[in-house]
Write a structure and sequence with these properties.
Largest sheet: 3 strands, antiparallel
Strand content: 15-25%
Order of helices and strands: EEEH
Number of helices: 1
Helix content: 25-40%
Number of strands: 3
Strand order of the largest sheet: 1-2-3
Number of domains: 1
Radius of gyration: 13 Å
Shape: flat
């Protein structure tokens, strides 16, 4: 399964927050990009393991765009 993960740097935490928009409430964090991605992979596995009925709902398409202002 492939899912989009948004990584956002949090200056207060001094690390990255990893959010999975296709899986509501599924997120994690880490002090580096690699740590955040490793942690969010575990969060995704746990999310799907504990809420198997949500698997079909989780396959909503998502779009990501970058805009310049």
């Amino acid at each position: 399964m492939r899912v989009l993960v948004n990584l956002i740097y949090d200056p207060d935490y001094k690390g990255y927050v990893a959010d999975v928009p296709e899986l509501p409430g599924c997120m994690s964090q880490g002090k580096s990009v690699d740590a955040a991605l490793k942690n969010v992979k575990e969060a995704i596995h746990l999310y799907l393991e504990t809420t198997p009925r949500r698997r079909k709902k989780a396959r909503k398409p998502s779009l990501t765009a970058v805009v310049e202002v």
